Amino acid sequence: GKSDDTLNVAFTKELENVDSYFNSSREGVVMQRAVWDGLVYRDPVTNEYKGNLATSWEWIDDLTLEFKLREGVKFHNGEEFDADDVVYTVNYVADEKNGAKTQRNVNWMKSAEKVDKYTVRISLKKPFPAAIEFLSGPVSMYPNEYYAEAGPTGMGLKPVGTGPYKVTEVEPGKHFVLEKYEGYHDSPKGQPEIGKIDIRTIPDVNTQMAELFSGSLDLIWQVPADQAGKLATMDQFTVANESTMRIGYLTLDAAGRTGEKNPFTDVRVRRAVAHAVNREALVAALLKGKSKVISTACFPSQFGCFQDVASYDYDPEKAKALLAEAGYPDGFETDFYAYRDREYAEAISSFLNAVGIKTNFHMLQYSALRELRMKGGTPVSFQTWGSYSINDASAITSQFFKFGSLDDSRDEEVRDWLDVADSATDPEKRKEYYAKALTKIADQAYWVPMFSYNTNYVFTNEVSYTPTPDEVLRFVDMSWN
Amino acid sequence: MSEGNASPPVLELRNVSKTYQIKQGMFGERKPLKAVNDVSLSLQRGDVLGLVGESGCGKSTLAKILLGLEAPTSGEVLVDGEPIGAQNRRLLARRIQPIFQDPYSSLNPRKSIRDIISLPLRVHGIGDSASQDKAVREILDVVGLPSRVMNSYPSQMSGGQRQRVAIARALIMKPEVVVCDEPTSALDVSVQSQILNLLGELRREFGLTYLFISHNLAVVEHLATRVAVMYLGRIVEEAPVGALFDEPRHPYTEALLASVLTPEPDLGVPDTHLGATYPNPIEPPTGCHFHPRCARVMERCKGVAPQITCDGEHSVECHLYGRESGQAVA
Amino acid sequence: MSEPVLSVRNLRLDIPTGAGTLHAVRGIDFDLERGETLCIVGESGSGKSLTSLAIMDLLSKRIERKADKLVFDGTDLTKAGAKKMRALRGDRMAMIFQEPMTSLNPAYTIGDQLMEALLLHRKVGKAEARRRAVELLEKVGITGAERRLSQYPHQLSGGLRQRVMIAMALMCEPELIIADEPTTALDVTIQAQILRLLVDLTREMNVAMILITHDLGVVARVADKVAVMYAGELVETGTAKKVFDAPMHPYTRGLLRCIPVPGKTERGSELGSIPGIVPSLVGKVSGCVFRTRCEEATEACRGEIPYRESAEGRHNFRCVHETGRRAGVEEPA
Amino acid sequence: MPGSIRVFGWLEMARTADTLLEDIQGPTPGQMLRKRIFGHQGLLFGVAVLGLLLLVAIFAPLLAPHDPYAQDLLARMQPPVFLGGSWEHPLGTDHLGRDYLSRLIYGARISLLIGGFAALISGLIGTAMGVAAGYFGGRVDMAVTFLINVRLAMPVVLVALAIVAVFGGSLQVVILVLGFLLWDRFAVVMRSSTLQVRSREYVTAAQAIGCSTSRVILSEIMPNIVNNLIVVVTLEMAHAILLEAALSFLGLGVQPPTPSWGLMVSEGKQMMLFEPWLVAIPGITLFVLVLAINLLGDGLRDVTAPENRS
Amino acid sequence: MLNFILKRLGLAVLVALTVSAISFSLLFMAGDPAAALAGEQATDVDIEAIRRLYGFDRPMIVQYWEWLSRALQGDFGESYYFRLPVSDLIMERLSITMTLGVCGISFALLTAVPLGVVAAIRPNSLIDRFALFLSVMGQAMPSFWFGLMMIVVFSIQLNWLPPSGTKTWVHFIMPTIVLGYYAMPAIMRLTRAGMLDVLGSDYIRTARAKGAGEGRVLFKHALRNAIIPVVSLAAVQMGFMLGGSIVVESIFALHGAGYLAWESIGRNDLPTVQALILIFSMFYIVFTFLSDVLNAWLDPRIRVA
Ligand SMILES: Nc1ncnc2c1ncn2[C@@H]1O[C@H](COP(=O)(O)OP(=O)(O)OP(=O)(O)O)[C@@H](O)[C@H]1O
Ligand SMILES: Nc1ncnc2c1ncn2[C@@H]1O[C@H](COP(=O)(O)OP(=O)(O)OP(=O)(O)O)[C@@H](O)[C@H]1O
Ligand SMILES: [Mg+2]
Ligand SMILES: [Mg+2]
Questions:
Q1: Can you give the residue ranges of the ABC transporter domain (chain B) (predicted)?
Q2: Complex prediction ipTM
């Protein structure tokens, strides 16, 4: 609490490793933003790129970026920040053998080389228009000497960065303690105000709320909508809601991977599915907050996320008619898979049941479902994708419509358009091709996009904080009232 | 042996042994226990062979071998001169039937008396249910129970009545041999005499042959025609009942007879001259198994096992009577 | 005559059961002199064990004990509190039970259990108690007594355990030993040994003994005095000689006819028997309990039954018939 | 033998016949059992509640006021009538607006189905193993005892979770997993009961009569251990129901929209601090069901206990 | 005795081996470990690389053998999720689970044994009925529900006890009660039944006949014999409790091994799950082994064989 200048926060999930290249969870991103800095910073409100550890950058060519680095920055352990750190970090994480957890975040970089002490060049494997976006996001700079010695394991147990908060205690699975870094450089992130952050892992949201009531927590987040609604009615708490980049969608087996006779190979059936689900009701009743119904297969704010595509309104009669037209007047039976948000998935499957598509509901662990989809696909499954908060349509479309194992539509035309869009450097050309692809995806109803997610932040009235739409807790922006 | 070897003995044991592998404790190593050790016996039709001996000497094991419930480790069991091994277990069951000691555990508490008694008939598929019922009624009458007990359950009956049911079950197949393993030792004397009388009557009536196992020598003397005395798995003496009781030869038999307490108030408690050390059957004493307790032990008894000496129908296994002992048979 | 060690008058034991009160023991009277052996004999369930436990005050709390007189060596047991009874038990009155296999605590050594009574009642040290234990073990005929002290019950055979029980009963030199069927679970040869030991020791130490058994042979050989029990009543008491030579009560006579006596009973002949079974003692019990099985029964047996003394004295029986027989019935030849 | 109906001296004692008569006309084991059953409150309570729930389960379609799967996102988490809700939904609605009472009624089916089938499967496995071990002894016994040890050494919840995680939590999978995990108590109890009964002389008698092994086991041994079996069946049924609830609570039990009570607790748990009845209602029914089954089991054990016999 | 211990030990090892084989094969079917390892947003290339890196493409028997031989040296491999040696990971959490287990079983024993003894001394008394009531409730109460209700009452309404965490002993009160109450009914019933049985036995009558006082009879003669089966049961329950602490740990946010196990199943973190199943089994095996030894020591019929 305010009295001991310590903010008590709860995480739901246990972080596998604090080293941000070796975890893949939201909590990891939160830690990363607090402990480390990237070369670039994107203002979460204006979406404007600013220099952070770099003061300026320029494209030398399609495959090379040059950065001028900020001088006088020191890591938490006293090590000085310079080009060697950047070179070491980039070369380390870009090397697939070192096993950075999320290869997509780093595998577009080929290597880095030092020009002088405060100038560095990063080379790309192929043209990658979203490079700056990634550099402002998941790619953060590590101290070369320390990292060479400690490696990911040591870094996980005793993280060292340049960020606004330094880690003073790590008890894996139990809690982390962050302390304000007094020597934090003059970063666009701003200066930290709260002295100490104590983050505990509490898996159960009820327990989190109980702790919040008893005063031993000051801030919880990712609170489900219903609970948040109730907490909002209580005087001692502030509930803030922000949208996130995560979207929910149904993916339908248009390619017939689960079998030639799969009803979803028929576009009428897919459209029937789209008409069957009352997405407005889902958003209004279950997700609430800043969630929106979406029609495109990407998050609206993402670059290239073309909005003017076919949309399917809630019309169960039409759905039934389409089914009948496709030869299923009495509906049919199908397996329905999901891996999270059981409540939403259940509600969706219930809508499908209502038009005669009888679903056998399967809730699987993510890995099991993923394996299933990789091996032979699923007829219909409820999926979500958060795009790593990367504000570019490539972060989602290229994952799912380019004949990867999770591509259930396998439309060559779509793939070719996306190839062009992903690698073109001209933004307008990219937009055009994304629009083509997204229009066809919607028209063919390969996916049934559902809604965007939101996050609820609940904190005591002692805390002042305005969350941002990218679902990242920014301790540096918090202060006591 | 007996007069006129015209018909073979109903039942004959030839050098029968039964060895159990005993585990001591939960994980102790296995050791052999000779529960029955090289026993030869024969029963003529109409005989009542009394089998006496201390607890654990192997009487029940012998009975189980006769009933075919345990296979002998070695030796042969012959019924009517035919080896039992060749016979079907079910055929044997028609000819030899048991009566057990504990009337409380020898009847299945879940079954009615009718079911219990007719079980042998049903197992062997004799008659239909009506004729089985008739047979049950008849046999109940024979053992002196009213036929209305047919629908009762064992828990509703007294010990003596239950024993009668057990006898009825044994007799319904009209067996030749009945193996009675201490049939009265769980009963009060007043009931015991009823059962003994019944057994005697039945034998006379149906010409049954009994193997009669008992602790109670007075009872054995009363009922048996021949008596075998067992000690640590061996038959140490066998003789017609009169001969054995009137002139016992083996020191163990003597001691047994001396221990019989008859209701004669003047006699006091006899001295059996037996040592108190009861031998461990797993590690029986060397030589004559009885020597550590024997009042008339000789040096030879400790090392050499005695041979059976036969004198007419009276056989004994003791150095006192062996040919080598030089001592004349009394 | 000196004061008896134990004097019992009209001892009654009632057990509440689901179906009503079970009058398990009804009106037992007897006296026991010092050094004397009383045998209580009767069918199973006749209340022998209950009677003995009643004297020791070891009945479960459910069972109600009433007596006009229950005096042990000058102490009125009906009035003695728990503490007083504890002081008596094991010290001046001791007990031997039927099952040698289960009557010793499996968790403690023979030595511990032997010494316990002495340590509880006498101010003696362990060494002294140990010495006494060894002495008594030798006395009951156990060889290697020193070694036995550290053995556990499961390492001994039944006969040896019963000897240990006897030694245990004698530790404090009691005035009264109650032995409840001490030999029923043992082999005949061992039974004779144990009985002999008991008789010799009680004589030697001048201990009074109540020996409970259902074996008439044992009674005849051991008893000074005999008490025949049937369904919770003493139907006949007297010296052993009188009871066996001239049994008065029809039940006693019946019992004696039931057992074959070598040399006397003809081999293979029909034995006598007592037909029927013991009546239920639940609820009101009146008249002679044996009448349902009695050859001599008459209408009068339903009434009050007098307690008669036989002509020669020191021999009592409970029967409506003066001689224990229906008038005009000849004794069968 | 026929024709020679003899009257023995024993029967001549005509005067005593009346005592004999009374004796034999005592209650049959069945009558005594009935008497004990009706004198046992816990047992009666257990039977009554279980019977009621069984009826509810069987007639669920008639009793349920609504379709338990019909969602109404506009009427979510309506309170039950005693907390100010309407009679339209007497016990309120759940987080998807489904009628709570209807789900509860159908849930009785699921719980009883899971408990019943899990107990049936584990009962078959365990009884077969236990009886075989007890009857045949020796190597069979050693093998069974070893298997029991192995099974006991495996942490049930963990293993069940792992399996359900792999195969998905369909009703069949949950039943099979529980069935294949909970046989240990059956095996242990049946083994020792069989050992006990096997040494009875009536078994030896049956063998001596020439009964086949299967006949001895089925008609002599089984009837005498079946009451122990029933007791274990009830206990394991309760165990299975609780375990399913725990699995559901951990998110790895049966799958939605199946209205399992355990799942309902788990779903209601989310709003536990604000709408406690969401958890309380299925929690209490679960508790009452398990309580009833346990009381039934305890009662059966009491009335069939050996000290109550004879 | 030594013989007994050695043979018992042999059995324990055999059981442990079998369990290890079962748990290994069981979990190997648990989805594609490579997919799990790669995480939610990985590409197919990532997954294929990981498959080769970790050797998931080799025959199962080879993998089992390798795993087992390393496990015997205390090396359970590296957690897919944490990238830390599994043994380190588990050691850390095990202390919490062990603390919880020890507290739980102590709570169960400390309540169940006295209650059981008193109930046996006074059957059908008020305290006997109370004990029966407690045990019937305990058997029917789902422990997750009990835990939640405890939090609602003692943390939310009364604010007496902290709802989660492990900082001080106060944090352990509610988890201990919830976990202990799970084991209590069985122990209590066994104590009561055993005590009733022993109190009715012949040797207790012998002790009374010697003039031993009630206290001596109860505590010296009876309890020693009645407690023998309770020791075994407590060991078994302790083993079950450790394996079953998952629910309690997740409710009270105790970061013990049970919670780790649950999470690891969700993450398909094979090495961790395998190690945990093996370790929980080992605990059970060790506890029952120790209880057998303790029993043997308490019961001379086994000790002096
Ligand atoms: N199934 C068995 N396995 C191992 N040992 C056995 C078995 N049956 C009997 N024995 C042993 O064989 C010996 C003889 O036993 P048996 O039952 O034949 O004696 P018994 O003379 O009938 O004794 P009792 O008079 O007590 O009935 C005993 O030492 C007994 O322990
Ligand atoms: N605790 C008890 N509760 C109910 N009935 C009892 C109890 N103890 C004894 N009885 C009954 O009291 C009667 C007398 O029992 P007791 O043990 O004294 O008989 P006994 O003569 O010693 O028989 P046995 O020769 O079998 O030892 C029996 O009918 C018995 O069933
Ligand atoms: Mg025998
Ligand atoms: Mg008695």
A1: 11-257
A2: 0.81
